[in-house]
Write a structure and sequence with these properties.
Helices cover about 0% and strands about 50% of the residues. By secondary structure, the protein is mostly beta strands. Strands 6, 7, 8 and 9 form a 4-stranded antiparallel sheet that branches.
């Protein structure tokens, strides 16, 4: 007969190191945690309801999410209820980072996923949103539900239960000769310490990486327009603003900008490019008739007026100006003349003296000379001089009137 008494196998539990087990008192239904290493013998009123199983291990720079986490006091001790069970935050969650292996208390759950901490690279930011009021222990400040902010890289982001990760925002690189068109979504002070109000729009043209704040948005990237000796711009203001030259522009104002003003130009958000203007070049024997010439004092076009510009010259048309035509200066030889007509009463000097002409009057202009008809005179045609006789000497000119045509004849005197 064997007098040695042993415990039933189901009452003896060997708990290895870094393992744990849940033991329930069958009389009170209280479940507690036993951790190894130990050999645990269940009492008559106890039974092992879970385990032994491995403790939870979190690798360096990783984290897990625990549901229904156990509550702890300021000293890190587990808080127990009046029945002696670990008190849980039912329905809540908790982020746990790298630490010593630990057991799960009855009621605590996790999805068996150990996730790596997120690394935010340089020139990027993680956009975050508070899902409830809480104390941000990493920023050491209170957050309100709905509040949004950036976690800017480079750095390691440590998640918090009350924080929702919205998106990863990358900085926009501004190349030389580019600018960002920005718009304020709410009142704030921008990165240049300038107060912006909701709806404000402005340009930011400092080269480098630009990460917009939460209160602003990027409308578009605007490339600079290169101005050369042969091209210029007509600009028009859409709102009142002060341009880069310190001049106030009003809605509807138009102006010219050339290479002499700036080699490159980025249009203001309150202006638009009305036209790309090529240079007009006249030779010394050419002239152009310009409609609506700009008044040099007021800078505004004189509607309905015209002016003549003679070469040799190169110029850009001002806003509102139009070229009616480009023509050649008339070359009148000694053997030719041109017939012209006065469009309106005027005083002209084609004969070398100021002569008063009436509207509709016609006359011949004799050479040799270069002749540029004024705006009040129209060119009709070129006429030759008729020479009577075999030899040339002194010339006497006679003018006869036939209706509206004045005819001049030349006789050679012997």
């Amino acid at each position: 007969m064997n007098d040695t008494w042993t415990y039933p196998a189901d009452l003896v539990k060997k708990i290895p190191p870094q393992h744990y087990m849940h033991v329930m008192n069958n009389n009170t239904s209280i479940v507690r945690v036993e951790v190894g290493p130990q050999t645990y013998v269940c009492k008559d009123e106890e039974s092992a309801v879970y385990g032994p199983t491995k403790m939870v291990v979190i690798a360096p720079r990783h984290y897990i999410t625990i549901k229904n986490p156990v509550l702890k006091d300021e000293n890190g001790e587990v808080i127990q209820d009046k029945f002696g069970m670990a008190k849980l935050a039912w329905g809540d969650e908790e982020i746990r980072l790298e630490q010593e292996p630990f057991p799960l208390y009855p009621g605590e759950l996790w999805d068996k996923q150990v996730k790596p901490l997120r690394i935010i690279p340089a020139n990027t930011a993680l956009r975050l949103k508070a899902t409830r009021d809480f104390h941000d222990k990493y920023a050491d400040r209170e957050r309100k539900a709905g509040e949004e902010w950036y976690f800017k890289g480079p750095g390691t982001y440590f998640p918090q239960i009350a924080v929702q990760e919205l998106q990863l925002v990358k900085a926009t690189v501004i190349q030389p000769g580019e600018a960002l068109h920005l718009k304020a979504n709410s009142d704030f002070v921008d990165q240049l310490k300038i107060q912006r109000f909701t709806g404000d729009e402005w340009m930011f043209d400092q080269p480098g990486a630009y990460l917009p704040s939460l209160q602003e948005s990027i409308v578009k990237i605007v490339p600079a327009i290169v101005l050369t000796d042969k091209s210029a711009l007509h600009l028009q203001a859409t709102h009142q603003f002060v341009d880069e030259f310190g001049k106030t522009r009003y809605p509807g104002d138009t102006w010219l900008i050339t290479k002499e003003d700036s080699e490159t130009h980025i249009p203001h958000v309150y202006s638009r490019v009305k036209a790309h203007v090529p240079i007009t070049t006249l030779t010394k024997r050419q002239y152009a008739i310009i409609r609506n010439p700009v008044n040099p004092v007021t800078g505004r076009p004189q509607r309905g007026k015209k002016e003549i510009r003679r070469g040799e010259v190169s110029f850009f048309l001002q806003p509102g100006e139009k070229i009616e035509r480009i023509d050649e200066v008339h070359i009148i030889t000694a053997e030719s003349s041109i017939l012209v007509e006065a469009r309106e009463a005027c005083i002209e000097d084609s004969t070398g003296k100021n002569v008063s002409r009436k509207a509709g009057e016609r006359w011949l202009v004799f050479g040799p000379k270069e002749y540029l008809p004024p705006l009040t005179v129209s060119f009709l045609k070129t006429s030759g001089i008729v020479s009577l006789g075999g030899y040339r000497s002194d010339f006497v000119f006679f003018r006869f009137m036939f209706g509206l045509v004045s005819l001049s004849l030349c006789w050679l005197l012997f």
